[in-house]
Write a structure and sequence with these properties.
About 40% of the residues lie in helices and about 15% in strands. The protein has about 90 residues and is of the alpha+beta class. The strands form 2 sheets. The chain has a two-stranded antiparallel ribbon. A two-stranded antiparallel sheet has the order 3-4. Bound molecules: zinc ion. The site of zinc ion has 8 residues, from loops.
């Protein structure tokens, strides 16, 4: 009986073999490294205003004063003046 063989052959050929249609999309995606260093370049150092306790940027500070070799930054000129009048009051 050759008929049985043909059927088997037809089934084998008709059988969908594992078609590799799936493209490798995952490998094409590139992870971009974010450049976070930009923010650090424009801004100054973060310091604490000794008068009001606010955290301010050294570059945006309204004034600064040096006391006992240390530099202090202030959010306003009036606070700078206040500090210079009595630095010990604001430094604990
Ligand atoms: Zn202040």
């Amino acid at each position: 009986m050759k008929y049985g063989f043909l059927v088997l052959l037809a089934l084998t050929l008709g059988m969908p073999t594992s078609v590799s249609s799936a493209t490798t999309e995952g490998t094409t995606r590139k992870d971009r490294a974010e450049t976070k260093s930009e923010a650090g370049q424009k801004a100054g150092k973060k310091v604490k205003d000794p008068v009001c306790g606010m955290e301010i940027d050294t570059k945006s500070a309204a004034g600064k004063a040096t006391y006992k070799g240390k530099t202090y930054y202030f959010c306003s000129v009036s606070e700078k003046a206040e500090f210079e009048k009595n630095p010990a009051k604001y430094l604990k």
